Amino acid sequence: MERGWLFLLIPLTIGAVHLCFGVYGLRRASAIRRTGVTVKGRIVRHDVTRSDEGGKFVHPVAAWTTLDGRACEYPSRFGRGSVGGRLGVGTTVTIRYDPENPRRFAIQGWDGATVDKLFTVVGSVLTAGTSVVLLVRLLAF
Fold it and tell me: Which phi-psi region, left, alpha or beta, contains residue 19 (left: φ > 0; alpha: ψ -120 to 50)?
């Protein structure tokens, strides 16, 4: 058997990594939905990050007070190209956070599961597709 099948490990690895990140994100979002506490907060600023390719990502920073009185101020996990008028500084937002670890939170209407679902689907397709091709190649020889 030639060594060409080793190249199938590349999309298999990429798929497995995407699948792991997607499932982790979906489980995290599900846990916050199930056991999270809902409070009102406000957007206090926007953190801007840049990718190596020059892309700009805006992460709204939310501030809120937990039910036990702790003040929290953390940037959103997801950044987008622009915020638009929806989440300007001073905007009141609904926050759902993990009472055990307030760093784990979601801004309602901003932090959706779309990215996590996309990672899960892409990872599943790459992993399953590459696994089928790999099995067919291994069984054919």
Answer: alpha
